[in-house]
Amino acid sequence: ALCVVFPRHPTVDESGYVRLLADHYAIPLHTYEQTANPLADLDRWTKLADGPYPGGSLAEYEEDFLLARKLGRPTILTGEHAEFLIAFQWNVLDHYLSHGRWSAARRELALRRARGWPYWRLARLAVRSITPDSILVATDRMRGLRPPRVPGWIEASMATLEEPVPVRERWLQTQLGAFIGPGVSLEAEEVCQAVCRVQSRKPWTDVDLWEFFLSLPAEQKFPDLRSKALVRDLLRGRVPDAILDRTDKTVFDAAALTKIDYAILRRYLGGADYRMPGVDYGQLGELLERQSLTALDYMWARSLATVHAFLSNW
Length: 314
What we know:
There is one protein chain. By secondary structure, this protein is mainly α. The protein is 53% helix and 4% strand. The strands form two sheets. It has a two-stranded parallel sheet. Helix 1 links the parallel strand 1 and strand 2. Helix 2 (42-49) crosses helix 11, helix 3 packs parallel to helix 11 (183-196) and helix 5 (92-98) crosses helix 7. The two termini are 41 Å apart.
């Protein structure tokens, strides 16, 4: 077992759970702290990938892959993409109400009521669940609300170009969220694997496994409000209870923010000749000068930097 640990960031570090699993299965465990600069060699990686790429840092992937190969393990199994299969619990009430699944809808609302939700909040959720997307978007705009995952220096209308989804199809779209093609991020990761002479395999993307989970009715796939409830129950007795019953959620923001290389970001984003439409480079430049990016800002800025790094190769 090979795992990155974050001893200086307790909210990120999962070494306790990792060691618990390694001991449980008697697996030799190698832990390490990443030292790679996430923004290193953007020119090189965008050239090798033949384009800009969002998502993970290829410099960090390279560090991970080379270490695995050094340890004599050229094939790597990861838990990536499990969330697409077992964790996307959004729009379940929309599905029940729009398909006349009244008993399942009552059960869903009763579970939330048991968690302390007041009746007005349940009513608001029910109304929002059957309201068309066009009305929801128009209402949010009237209230001056921005999409929650778009920073202030990005024009919201440029970042959210998806077509409205009919209420009856929201659940379907959520469950099929992974079926958008391989994506440039996966292609870039495969390039990195080839460079490092390793293979990364993702068991959670097994076709038979997907067919099974997609065949389940919503109330079986998500029997209660716990995250990944069905899988937690299926793994009972096979995985230590301390892991199955954990209620904390690991977020990597704290570690990511400490590794921001503002000098590299300013080099690519501060004086670039080309300007991407919908990006307020002035506002972004001020954040870079003050070194005050949030985790959301950094996620978008890093992807934007790969665009400009790729353009710099021409």
